[in-house]
Each structure stands twice: as structure tokens, then as C-alpha cells.
Specification:
The chain contains three helices and two strands. It is of the alpha+beta class and about 100 residues long. The protein has one domain. A two-stranded antiparallel sheet has the order 1-2.
Amino acid sequence: MAAESTNNPMEFVTVEIYDQLYHLAGNNAPYLRELARQVDAKMRAVAAQGHTADSLRVAVLAALNFADELSQARSADPTVGRLRTSCLNGLLDEVLEEARKTAS
């Protein structure tokens, strides 16, 4: 993790993300807690926009949102890499539907 320091001893922290507990280890417990808070907030925002209770789908959409934000932050042109949830939602629907068909 970018904010970790090699001088700090390994710390263990339990965080809650989208109503699930995760046990994490790192050199900066406050930083881990803040990351977990951001992931939880993003997942809840994605879930509030959609009509699904599937936590895996919510997690994938949240990850895509974070990836989009990172891509925009790295890009000199703010229009490069812009992906919106509605577009990603449709793509994810297609992938999940195909996965359901092949699993049957």
C-alpha cells in the first residue's frame, strides 16, 4: 500500500465492508480503515443506484468506478477513460448472463 512505511510494525485490523468483516494486515491501521471506509461507501452508493442485492455484482461495479476514477486522475484529458455505471451495468449483465448459461 502506498501509505505504508517499512519502519512501522505489522498491524492487524478488522474492518467492515458492505456488512462483511475482513481481517487485514498492514503497516498503517488508520490507512487500512480509511480505505475500507471508502470501499464501503462506494459499494453502498453503487447499490443505491442499482436494483441488485448481489454483493459480488456491487463489488465489481464499485471496483470499476474506482478504476474509472483512477484512470481519469492519471489522464491529461478528462474525457479519456470515462466509463459510467449505466454502461458498465449493461456490460456486466451480459457477462453474468453468459456465465449463468455456461454454468447450467
